[in-house]
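Table 4 source record.
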Amino acid sequence: MAEPASRIVLTDRFEETSAEFRQRWEGALFHTVEADEFLIEHAKEATEKAWLTSDREKVIVLAAKRFSPIAQNKLLKIIEEPPSKTHFLLLTPSKASLLPTVRSRMVIENRLQKGGGEESGVDLERFDLARLFDLLQENRRTDARSASELVQALAKEAMRSDRYLLDEKLLQSFEESVRLLDMGSPPAFVLSRLGLKLLGRRR
């Protein structure tokens, strides 16, 4: 079974994605909690399933279009310190539905179709060093593909905003960031570099 198993997967195809992971992690015991909106009762159910005794690796699949903040806070401790051999798979179409504290604790995989309209979740109108730090914390375990999607979303949002001087150098910075990610540069390094360049172009 690949490690770390616990992760957030951005997808709108819950059944297909879950089936793929079942095949990928053959031999693991899967428990699924699915809802349109993940509420406190679903968090309690997930916690109960996590504590079920088993000699096999166990995956708790949490699939929802939206996750309520209260339910997410209820899950924080068990996600951070899960029972032995227990892993969590959170399926949702938008990372904006998840709290920064949840996003910062898990690897993020983006399986949405390219151009699917995923937003960055960054408030570019009030972007400053503190928000750059938050962005890096939230994405410290993000994979290269998700980071690339984030860079492209930031580029589109910066172009729509009147808060930035969109000169040739800044546009090249977005292109270069995607290229660096494709070449294997650490996402945290690329996002930090791009964030500082954005701050330098604020009006």
